[in-house]
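Worked example 3 (structure in, sequence out).
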């Protein structure tokens, strides 16, 4: 069942066309990866799906409802969003920041249940030891994990993430993706995630949406989408795509280093 459905979406900043005719869906239990080079429209697409930007054409459906007809509190109860930037310099602690993810459900006070959900999210993202630290004192990677934990405690059916692993070391990259992949499959969430690391995307995403110049270049399972032709046409690089593991992975080749016939 599609929890997010986007049909024929187009968006322009003034006279600069950024997205044209984008159509895709994200199903319950699925991690959908948005991939493509810098400037291809990934962040703009995520902001259109979240309702922060209004498309010039097309529709975004969230749980069968058109998002433009929903109140922001309703959207927040159905969809969590983790932005790309980690420049949060708030004086709040990690615990307090993650607790903010419960705001769509809070009335006058924080309950013991709310606090328990925060602690569970901190444990999932390996943040328990940082709970009382000020967010402003953290590294970029630590702040990024805090924002992901905040999204998780919203307990929404869908999660949008814009390059959440960009500031993380390889261990925490895999840890975050394991958590998101596991939650998608175990709890039936739809997770839409913009990624630059194609090998990480191929390993953890059920499907990939490849953008090039604001258009959909490819859409399907990683083994269908990740190819040497795609890498050449979309990213402008020569690479070898290996298929000897559970998921395909690409090995970029320096210019002039690829032997003919290999």
């Amino acid at each position: 069942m599609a929890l997010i459905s986007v049909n024929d979406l187009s968006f322009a900043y003034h006279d600069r066309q950024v997205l044209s005719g984008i159509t895709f869906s994200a199903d319950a239990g699925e991690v959908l990866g948005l991939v493509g080079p810098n400037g291809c429209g990934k962040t703009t697409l995520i902001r259109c799906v979240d309702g922060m930007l209004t498309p010039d054409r097309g529709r975004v459906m969230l749980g069968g409802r058109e998002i433009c007809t929903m109140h922001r509190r309703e959207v927040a109860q159905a969809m969590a969003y983790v932005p790309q930037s980690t420049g949060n310099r708030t004086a709040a602690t990690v615990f307090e920041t993650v607790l903010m993810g419960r705001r769509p459900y809070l009335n006058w006070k924080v309950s013991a249940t709310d606090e328990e959900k925060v602690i569970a999210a901190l444990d999932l993202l390996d943040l328990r030891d940082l709970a009382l630290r000020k967010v402003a004192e953290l590294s970029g990677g630590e702040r990024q994990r805090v924002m992901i934990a905040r999204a998780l405690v919203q307990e929404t059916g869908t999660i949008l993430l814009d390059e959440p692993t960009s500031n993380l070391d390889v261990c925490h990259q895999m840890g975050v993706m394991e958590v998101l992949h596991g939650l998608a499959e175990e709890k039936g969430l739809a997770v839409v995630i913009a990624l630059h690391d194609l090998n990480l995307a191929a390993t953890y995403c059920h499907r990939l949406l490849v953008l090039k110049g604001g258009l959909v270049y490819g859409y399907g399972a990683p083994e269908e989408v990740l190819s040497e032709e795609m890498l050449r046409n979309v990213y402008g690089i020569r690479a070898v795509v290996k298929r000897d593991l559970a998921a395909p992975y690409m090995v970029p080749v320096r210019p002039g280093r690829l032997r003919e016939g290999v």
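Notes: The first strand starts at residue 2 and ends at 13. The CA atoms of residues 48 and 54 lie 6 Å apart.
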